[in-house]
Amino acid sequence: MKNLLSLIRENDPIIIHRHTNPDGDALGSQTGLKQIILENFPGKTVYMTGDAAGRYAFMADSVMDEVADEIFPTALCIILDTSAPHLISDSRYQQAKALCRIDHHLFIGQIAPVELVDSSYESCCGLITAFCMEMGLRMNSAAATALYTGMVTDSGRFRYDSTSPQTMRCAAFLLEHGVDTNEIYRQLYASDFDQLLLRAKYTLKIRFTPCRVAYIYTTREELDATGADEFTVSRGMVGVMSDIQGVDIWANFTETERGVLCELRSSQYNINPIAVKYGGGGHAKASGATLPDRETAMLMLNDLDELTKGANK
Ligand SMILES: [Mn+2]
Question: Where are the alpha helices (DSSP H) in the chain?
């Protein structure tokens, strides 16, 4: 952490990068670190670079800067929340005078000569908060709000396994510096009325297997009738089954031109081998596959029932 602080102290200008298709953590760490540098080293010039904020454009100060080519060879570039070089938004970091990285992903390989990589943190925002706390840097409410947003999104509202006592200590520190949590949650989680209606419709479609695997099956005709695209239905609606008591596995089947899209989730079981058996893949508790027809979907439900009978937790 000391090396990182020296680099920041000694360099001007500073350009902050993060991964492409930014999420709340990428943007939160980018704008949060910028605010911390400006708060503690007034007079420094700090740029942010990368593709547009998209869904997270509501975050304050999330518009990227146009950084001229000739600035890079004079600058310190800081890469945030990125595990591999090809994911870094704006490859001109390669021309930087000095380079460092702050990240919380599992370490794959070194990108910069100075790196602060710690995968015990739920978010890059959490790691930057800890850096600020440990180095005794001043925090302000703009930085705290940005960093808190990233902590909330990357930890799934403090629910994922990665949430730790350390997470809560960092979050507490941020709250002490002026975070309007109501405003953040409203921006992140308010859904429009059409979305709400669709969720209601899909809640009514939930069915159960004999072993309490929850599932929804949407035919081609039903999909067309909703007027929603297949992604909104397949990925978007699997979550309506996620918090039902007594349900540890749930599956969302959606008939499309390409076959029956299947999204599989579990709170307890490793459902990945079943997704793989049907030509899909993903993670232990979240996988997907594309099935040829409804009969195959029903066979998959049988397999999921069998899984709940075994000890394969
Ligand atoms: Mn992250």
Answer: 2-10, 24-40, 124-134, 141-154, 165-175, 181-189, 193-204, 220-226, 230-237, 272-277, 294-309
